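Researcher: Can you fold this with 2-oxoglutaric acid in place?
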Amino acid sequence: MNLNEMAAFYREHGYLLAEGLLTPAEVEAMREEADATIERMSRHQQEANNLWKGNWLKDEERAQQRLNAVHDMQFQAAIFGKLLFNDKLLDIAEALIGPNVQLHHTKMLAKPPEKGGAFPMHQDYPYFPHQNHTMFAVSIYLDDADEENGCIRVMPGSHKLGPLECDPGGFYLPPEKYPIEEGLPVKAKAGDGVIFNYLTIHGSSPNRSGRPRRNILIQMRDPSDPPTRDIHASRGQGLMLRGINPVPVPAAWAAERKAAAGVS
Ligand SMILES: O=C(O)CCC(=O)C(=O)O
């Protein structure tokens, strides 16, 4: 698919498989840094186990699952900062949302073999609602991902439903109405990215295989698309990845800088 075809597919289906964003050497280097990050977190007693809260999972299942989730990966290792400026990815981002592409946040999700945690079906929208719905995620796989190790599942076209009512405690959709198994598994190779709009219903099954499933997820938006509720702050948010920021950077930032430097 060329970039125009990719954009047309994304507009129609709300998701897109972007193949070959990373070279095998980049994948290998990122695997090492991903594992080293988890190891550092545990050495410093920072809990990385972050299964989705709520009643969608029975207590006994919850006790058997584990999900290593670490936010703001560009602050963990330079290789993840460099990833934000991957040209193949940004060419696609530009085709999807226009010439200006801004970072919202990043995270790593690592499902360990045999017990890697599931994600209930949900939209990302309630976590960071925006006016024009330009927000999308790219989940870049560091391992081949399939049904057995819990690849992402999407409901194609569901972005057209708009924001849906969800559980106020956990922001997930009712599991009886939206079972994880009914999502379309988007199989991908290590180094591929699965792109999906923040309105697209998605989730994933547990990793029951003997292989890990690690990915780096980046959320991006058009900087002209304002949040309707300011409820998701993260480090590095607002960094321009491509193009320009047509929205004035808050004057308060300059005041903060001056105050920190002790000048007026
Ligand atoms: O990577 C996955 O399996 C799901 C991630 C996800 O749904 C999310 O971060 O919102």
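Model: Folded with 2-oxoglutaric acid in place. The two ends are 54 Å apart (CA to CA).
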